[in-house]
Amino acid sequence: MHPHGEKILLSEQEIKTRVAQLGRVISEDYKGKELLVIGILKGAIIFLTDLVRSINNPIYFDFMSVSSYGDSASTSGEVRILKDLDKSIEDRHVLIVEDIIDTGLTLDYLTHVLSSRGPASLKICTLLDKPSRRVTPVYVHYRGFSISNDFVVGYGLDYNERYRNLPYIMALRPKIYGGGS
Ligand code: PRP
Description:
Layout lengths: L4 E6 L1 H18 L5 E7 L3 H8 L6 E9 L12 E4 L9 E9 L3 H11 L5 E9 L12 E5 L5 E2 L15 E4 L1 H4 L4
Parallel strand pairs: 2-3, 2-5, 5-6, 6-7
Antiparallel strand pairs: 1-9, 3-4, 8-9
Helix pairs in contact: 1-2
């Protein structure tokens, strides 16, 4: 494990197995339909690239960049679009792919914005969910894992842009992010 890690929360194999399961369920649910997968930069990228390879349907990608955290470990509660979609989602079956849902503010905002653009359907897929941190309710259609309130990094998730390339998800040592002893 990386020396900044407290413990491995989800191993590479655990993630791989769960992502393949999600892919099978999504393929079945969208059988016969084209899917527009919207990745929320940057954290969702690693999950998205693995997930789409487990889905059989014809898939198109688009990306949005939405910031609510800046470079700090806690949410500011403020959601801003840094990069919007390239194309219209009207009449498309849209699946938003996220790495983690924490307060729910990002997805609450995104679902309002995207549902107003007339998609045929709009669903949410997140690898991780921290339900104990929720400020705004969000309906999650596909969830990889529910986790407790550890500060997690790896497999796309960062702290100050670091650790995204770790193939597993680990809890960061509190002394690294300035929490606890
Ligand atoms: C993270 C994550 C979600 C959001 C979830 O993104 O990818 O988009 O925070 O938090 P919320 O439920 O409290 O709104 P972040 O702003 O850290 O950007 P990143 O994906 O580029 O790391």
